[in-house]
Amino acid sequence: MSNDILFLAEFTSGAPARSAIELATGAAELAAQSGGDAVALAYGPGAASGAASLGAHGAARAILLGDEDRPAITYAPAAVAAARDGGLALLAPATPNGRDLAAALVGLLDLPAFGPVRAARVAEGVLETEQATLQGSVITTSRPVEGTPAPAVVLVLANTFTPGDGGSGTAEVVEAATAAESALAKASVAESHEAEAKVVNLEEATVIVAGGRGVGGEEGFGPLRDLAKALGGAVGASRAAADAGWIPYQLQIGQTGKVVKPSLYIGAGISGAIQHRVGMQTAEHVVAINKDPDAPIGEFADLFVVADLFQIVPALTEEIRRRKGA
User: Fold this and answer.
1) Looking at the structure, do residues 151 and 236 belong to the same domain, yes or no?
2) What HEC string does the chain produce?
3) Which residues constitute the domain of residue 223?
């Protein structure tokens, strides 16, 4: 078994997805610990011409699975062929496409799986991962059982690895080995609809302004959207707000919604129950605005503002706009 760290690198519209850049950085970090190389499994429109650019983010090699505009799951047979040679770990983004391919790899190659994880490292040649369990109240460290097939598939949350500015390096690009016949390669898209950008970008947003029951209704998200726009971020919500029909379920954060890891998370009118906390607890900085001084979110917020969100949020938005214009 090699000590290489493989990672799925999706390309869209001729460029690597943010998840591909993040995982290139993470794979390079883990490869430095394992003594191997970071190896991309590149696929999607633009992969053929752009795979070499992943070298700027740490990839030593890139295996080209294909560059057609087709469902990600159809690349599973090529990914299986590429992963058969082994490696210590294969990193997959916790995105819809990443989950599909990760599940196919685990099932077809009988590989161990971990995730979604919040951290990973290689200690004494052994992969270790960290993930939240028991609704986020416990952080579990896991390792593959000795003797299990390799590579271990690791589903990685967005923003787990922070990419740098990139360098001038290039990755060596090789074609994937011929894949075996598979029904997965015949999958096709029957119908598709464009999602709003704010929905698409929620898991990758570095700033999130989220609202809960305290916003009072659909119109209560107006000030939150203004603040998110001023900060260049995205709007999210608690399950209570989504269940009430005030905001699309695609924007729900928590145990039954999205798991996010922004640099800044602003929760307005959110109590901070454990079901919501599990979806945002790895945010670097948490600011809470709530009229209830005993709201659970105050226990883990970096800054807890006990006040009416409809007074604080507009004032904060105006101040940010003023400073940007200064």
Assistant:
1) no
2) CCCCEEEEEEEECCEECHHHHHHHHHHHHHHHHHCCCEEEEEECCCHHHHHHHHHHHCCCEEEEEECCCCCHHHHHHHHHHHHCCCCCEEEEECCHHHHHHHHHHHHHHCCCEEEEECEEEEECCEEEEEEEECCCCEEEEECCCCCCCCCEEEEECCCCCCCCCCCCCCCEEEECCCCCCCHHHHCCCCCCCCCCHHHHCHHHCCEEEEECHHHCCHHHHHHHHHHHHHHCCEEEECHHHHHCCCCCHHHEECCCCECCCCCEEEEECCCCCHHHHHHHCCCCEEEEEECCCCCHHHHCCCEEEECCHHHHHHHHHHHHHHHHHC
3) 197-325
Residue 123 falls within a domain, yes or no?
yes
What would the mean pLDDT of 28-33 be, rounded to a whole number? 96
Q: What predicted TM-score, i.e. pTM, was given to this entire model?
A: 0.77
Tell me, yes or no, whether 79 and 176 share the same domain: yes
Same domain, yes or no, for 169 and 230?
no
> Nearest 5°: CA angle at 309, between 200 and 243?
50
Residue 6 has pLDDT above 60, yes or no: yes
Whether 248 is covered by a domain: the verdict is yes
Domain total of the chain: 2
What CA–CA distance (Å, rounded) separates 60 from 62? 7
Residue 191 belongs to a domain: no
Domain membership of residue 225 (yes or no) is: yes
Q: What's the order of all strands across the beta sheet hosting 119-123?
A: 119-123, 126-133, 138-142
Q: With the C-alpha atoms ordered 315, 321, 324, 325, is the resulting torsion angle positive or negative?
A: negative
pLDDT per position as a tens digit, 126-159: 999 998 766 556 788 999 998 889 999 999 988 7
